[in-house]
Amino acid sequence: MRGYRHPSAIAIGAILLGVAILSTSPSLAQPQATKEEHKLTLRAIMQELGAEYLRLANALLIDDFKGLEESAKAIQTHLLPDEIVVAIKNKLGRNFRAFERADEQSHQRAADLVRRAAAKDISGAAKAFGGIADGCVSCHKQFRAPLRSLSD
């Protein structure tokens, strides 16, 4: 039972609980439509990223380095369409630069996970995964409310 007091055991436990909860929600566990089929909204884009995040968590838990690398690459290379970027910029005004930095940081963190997965470094991959989670939470905390109207 001593392992449960270790920060990594707590983090893995939290990830498992989060994956279990999120995977029971079909709207979060699976993209609702292909990129071509859905109405292009910030919500749809975030749902696609959320689905990749869940695949990342699953791949991490079963040491699936190929799956880790693929999902991390999908997050690393995801782009926001110009029309969404313009809408975000119009909504955030001067705060748009902070949004750009947060987005760039998420791409960098995903690139770090790609490298660690390619090197089959499970401990490093877990740390990189945590960095992605921290980035998501931080960005949502700062920008979700002001951008909520773009999600509909």
Comma- or semicolon-separated keywords:
152 residues, mainly alpha, 7 helices, 75% helix, 0% strand
Question: Which bin fits the share of residues in helices?
Answer: over 70%
The tally of helices reads 7
In quaternary terms, these chains amount to: single chain
Percentage of β-strand residues: under 5%
Overall strand count: 0
Description:
This protein has helices spanning 7-23, 26-29, 42-61, 65-77, 82-92, 96-118, 122-147. The protein has 152 residues and is mainly α. The protein is elongated, with a radius of gyration of 16 Å.
Summed up:
The chain is mainly alpha-helical. About 75% of the residues lie in helices and about 0% in strands. It is elongated, with a radius of gyration of 16 Å.
Q: How are the SSEs ordered, and which strands pair?
A:
Blueprint: H1 7-23, H2 26-29, H3 42-61, H4 65-77, H5 82-92, H6 96-118, H7 122-147
